[in-house]
Specification:
This protein is α+β, with helices and mostly antiparallel strands. The protein has 3 helices and 10 strands.
Length: 171
């Protein structure tokens, strides 16, 4: 199988205090509902989570992404994540989320990630699908950030510990 590493960096402004945004994002299984196409996010160890996505298809190519990542946070304004290559994983991942105070008590969220899924594509077709994989990754990050903003701005009850879950947009 071919891996298509894609790096994406996107930012969004959220009308919520930095401390609230950090707490929401640090609750990885709780905030994972904002990830477009996510089927499940389960804790598998201390600050380590397994993400499984719904199966996707483009023409004859079908795939389901799965990765396990360990999270590290500084408790304030940065969360790092790194894939650990667990059994059954088919995607490498690494990245970080940086939070910056914005005017009027808001927060700028910047997500930078590298995602490299194994794709069942013959070598002859790899160049043709590479741009598709990159655009899909970029669209997914944008949708995720929009879903996070919606959860934090329109549904303050979804703050950590509230027990309720935000609705998510699909990519």
């Amino acid at each position: 199988m071919a891996k298509f590493p894609t790096e994406v960096e996107e930012s969004i402004l959220v009308r919520a205090p930095l401390k609230t945004v950090y707490a929401f994002l640090w609750d990885v299984p709780g905030s994972a509902v904002c990830i477009p196409g996510i089927a499940s996010c389960e804790a598998v160890g201390k600050d380590t989570y397994c993400f499984t996505y719904q199966e996707r298809s483009a023409g004859p190519v079908r795939m389901s992404v799965r990765y396990t990542a360990r999270y590290r946070g500084n408790g304030k304004d940065r969360i790092d994540f790194q894939g650990i290559d667990a059994p059954g994983d088919n995607t490498a991942v690494e990245g970080h989320i940086t939070l910056t105070p914005a005017g009027d008590g808001g927060t700028k969220i910047t997500l930078k990630q590298m995602l490299a899924p194994d794709t069942p594509v013959p070598r002859l077709l790899q160049r043709f699908i590479e741009s598709y994989v990159t655009e899909e990754a970029r669209a997914a990050v944008r949708t995720y950030l929009a879903n996070v903003r919606q959860a934090l701005e329109q549904h303050p009850a979804h703050a950590p510990g509230s027990g309720s879950k935000p609705k998510r947009k699909r990519a």
